[in-house]
Amino acid sequence: MDLLVVVPHPDDEVFGAGGTLIQYADWGLETGLITLTKGEAGRTLGLCAPERLGDFRAEELKRAVDILKVGHFELHDFPNGRPNSSLEGEARGHGFATPNGVADHPEIVDLLLWRFEVLRPRAIITFAPNGSNRHPDHVATHQFVVQAARKSGQKIKLFFYAPPQPLPEYLEGWLPPTHVRHLPMEVLLQKLRAMAQHRTQALSVLNFMDRFSHRLASETFHLAGYEGPVQHELLWYARR
Length: 240
Hints:
Strand 1, helix 1 and strand 2 form a beta-alpha-beta unit. The chain has a single domain (3-232), classed as LmbE-like (Rossmann fold, 3-Layer(aba) Sandwich), CATH 3.40.50.10320. The chain has helices spanning 12-26, 53-68, 106-119, 136-152, 185-196, 202-211, and strands at residues 3-7, 31-35, 72-75, 123-126, 157-161, 179-182, 218-223, 231-232. It contains six helices and eight strands, in the order βαβαβαβαββααββ. The two termini are 13 Å apart. The protein is of the alpha/beta class. The chain has an eight-stranded mixed β-sheet, sandwiched between helices. It comes from Meiothermus hypogaeus. Keywords: Hydrolase.
């Protein structure tokens, strides 16, 4: 497999890597997505009963995956944690991260190790150490992926979401972009349509579009271990 995206929640795939997934598929490269939770701790916006949110978001994600042209898709049902503020009156949950933020679920690392051994991805995209916004599931997923990739012994290139400039409260654990991909209009339009499938999370989608509109048409990543100049429009891995 040429490119595998590993994220904890439905919609995490499209904000930072949606255009890249579309373009890789258009170029005939093999793409995959592993999502670890159904996102049952998110908002419902009244579109479904709270107890049905996980299944509802799973259907939203499947529609987005079709638009993103993902070749291999897996959705798991590990528990979804909540960020610092509770949603819709629910108490905060830690999902698969512990209260102190340490990811100590070896079964998830073992799952990813197995999937990496089967899929043999040449490159993986996931969250950076700060999880972009300190969400405990984002931070934990970074730790899981890094541990599994290390254990696999494969030569996997690890790319982390890397906004050009983090908000001050998320500076710790931020990694600067090393690779910048600019999306053509036709790819951007498909990416926006994929974002629109996550209807229950419309407030998050609109907030991202309002605060980070400049990041819709470009996707920026940090390649672990890379020390060269910033790369633009780089096709990381084409079949030889």
